[in-house]
Amino acid sequence: MKLKNKRNYVGVLSSVFAIFIGLLVGLVVLILCNPSQALPGFMTILTGAFTHGMRGVGQVFYYATPIILTGLSVGFAFKTGVFNIGTPGQFIMGAFGAVYAGIMWDRLGGLHWAAALLASIVLGAFWGLIPGLLKAYFNVNVVISCIMMNYIGMYLVNWTVRSNKTLFNTLRNESKDVASTAVIPKMGLDKVFTGSSVNGGIIIAIVVVILIYILLNKTTFGYELKAVGYNQDAGKYAGINEKRNVVAAMMIAGAIAGLAGGLLYLAGTGKHIEIKDVLAAEGFTGISVALLGLSHPIGVLFSGLFIAYLTAGGFYLQLFEFSTEIIDIIVAVIIYFSAFALIVRSILGKIQEKRAKKEEMREGGGQE
Amino acid sequence: MSVIYFIFQQTMLFTIPLMIVALGGMFSERSGVVNIALEGIMIMGAFTSILFLNLTGGKMSGQVQLILAILISMATGAVFSLTHAYAAINMKADQTISGTALNMFAPAFAIFVARVIQGVQQIQFTNTFRIDSVPVLGKIPVIGPMLFQNAYITTYLGIIILVMSALVLYRTRFGLRLRACGEHPHAADAAGINVYRMQYAGVVISGALGGLGGLVFVVPTSTNFNADVAGYGFLAIAVLIFGQWKPWKILGASLFFGLMKAIAAAYSGIPFLASLGIPSYLYKMVPYIATMVVLMFTSRNSQAPRASGVPYDKGQR
What we know:
The structure holds 2 protein chains of 2 kinds.
Chain A: H1 2-33, H2 35-47, H3 53-79, H4 87-104, H5 112-138, H6 142-163, E1 168-169, E2 174-175, H7 189-192, H8 201-218, H9 220-230, H10 232-237, H11 242-265, H12 281-292, H13 297-315, H14 325-338, H15 341-363
Antiparallel strand pairs in A: 1-2
Chain B: H1 2-30, H2 38-56, H3 62-90, H4 95-118, E1 123-124, E2 131-133, H5 143-147, E3 149-151, H6 153-171, H7 173-183, H8 185-190, H9 195-221, E4 224-225, H10 232-242, H11 247-266, H12 271-276, H13 280-298
Antiparallel strand pairs in B: 1-4, 2-3
């Protein structure tokens, strides 16, 4: 138990270290570009999200909703030993499922939005299932098949939306509005965060985070998934069906990423599937969220909020004539340095070693 | 006949950058470092070199300008890839993670700097590099129109890089050592090879070729650069695997991918293909689906370098 706590502590510390360096690089870039505006600009990144009080906080929750889930998708897959870089594809498939159901199944009344979300989960799960099956039965590298699935999914969605007259808005080259019954209810959040785009999606996202936490930490199935993640051979030796595990893990990860797409495109904020040959950015952001949150469900929740917070602050940077890409630069640097967990660990190890040695010296009366 | 020449010329425009980048990826993976950052490296290489084209447009003759841009793109890619090498080799970081970070960093950086320098994120350049017909060679029947008309010097550079890569990898001491590091670094180390140095070499070569590939991709197909290489870096990774980490097979794979891309881009102008009525999306999807199918049949006994993606730790057994 003690060891586990220590490991978590080192992990959190390495994330904090990475965030610190990322922000530092951001500040340096701002200073290099325009020294006089750099400090106010930097303060905007840090506090800009609160510019409009509760409305700003609501916006942070709104931005955070999809990336918490794509982050959870990547993080969950990480825990089970696979790198799910397929979130952009699963996300857009989920978004397509939600938009399709949101437009076509318009006779469901009050259940419409839930059915549309279910469609997004199913399509996302299907898109995750394929790399899982290929890994289990053909030993195909998950990273590569996921990258392929991203592009296949993107083209497939664009193709289907474009060729379906009831879905496609020819004038704006994007999907049409979903029915009003398919929009996720506000669940009272609009009263608290007046004027913001936040909706029940964030509550659903948090519930999913808790469910995954329970699945991973309190169930036999979750234990098996993690065991295979730590050591595939040991898991196999212990009688765990590692084929079933990788398929299940990818399917669940895909379902979560698909739900992320559903929640964003049913938010009722005028989000449409645009016919562009570009992979969904929310999917890639999920990788950052997962890495920063150490792949732990609760960590992912907070890192998702953190990145959404930076993004919301970055919005106001345009006031200082800095472009919002600075946020992406900061996040990229954070990810780069969070991969360096090893140095933080070794530095901490050295400090501890020194301390232990000093204590030893003291106890031994300084004799050598 | 002219339709076939047209398709072939178009195919070369897509094939050459893919092949160059995939060959770059080959050097990195053969040394034992997975380089998923090729997309980001392409963007950085294209960014600096096209900025150079933008700033020096009209000040020097087209081909000289292009050659200088080529050198700049390679240098940029090599320097940028050092960050990946440092993370992967010195820090023993997860190579996929550091690669992902580079992929995120590059477009953001390119857009940000372009805005600071010139206000807008698109960087315009004037294409003065197309060679209508190479003297003498362009007049050869069949081969002339296919390879020596409407061509760019980058096409010939790509072919030179292919031949050089094959020679270096299989016919030099350096190539043998590089491959040894990717297969069994501990054995290589025991034989007196400096594994870290070889891996640095592999990653830096992949960076130089990746950066070059970015420029080679943008120049013939566009007149501005918008911090984007349309996923070619990821596609090159697919080509690399499709080509089983071997130079000549990479040529074959990139020809196939290039042909599909060319058809998707230009099929409406080709009467025979337009009459088939197959939607362009299908051609766009085929390379990715084909890669999946090939992977299904080849992954059981993959030719991937054994130690690729595993940080080399001297103390480990």
